Amino acid sequence: MGVEVLNLISVDLRIRQRTAHGTAWAVHIGCSHVAGIGASAISRYPQGYAQNISASAKYASAVDSGSLATERGHTMTADDQLRADMIEGLMCQFSIDLDQLSKKHGIPVSQLMAMTEGMRERFRAQIRLDGNKIALVEEARLIARLAAQEVDAYSMPEGRHSRAL
User: Fold this and answer.
1) Domains, the chain
2) Which residues of 97-113 are buried (b: 16+ CB within 10 A; e: fewer)?
3) What pTM was estimated for this model as a whole?
4) Residues 54, 42 contacting (CB under 8 angstroms)
């Protein structure tokens, strides 16, 4: 299934498949709001993240009874929000604009450069640095998830999540 675009009261809602099996969907409302629909789906709001119940039967039961199907959540710190913007840039635009992040978060570009040093070193052959913009070269866009892990403060150990290609 592809991406469907719906216009509802002049707000673009994009619905897309979140898993290979089609069990979870996300409704994108602007850039910082993602409402996860389905078992194990993750929602993103300006305040943080929420994850739905992972077990399909328990999720369906909660929905059928009119209860919230949220199992856990995380309130984002300022550092979390900064890193989320970095990860979103890599995953969506295949780049991180350090000048833009500096203005938005009030962090000096030099500190942002230090935060991305590991990623830039590990993927130096796949990254182009143009001024204060870090971009994955077109041929390397498949490694966006791996590059994003380098700036993720909550990066999980091997085997906890599915591996990138």
Assistant:
1) 4-75 (no CATH), 78-149 (1.10.10.920)
2) bbeebbeeeebeeeebe
3) 0.68
4) no
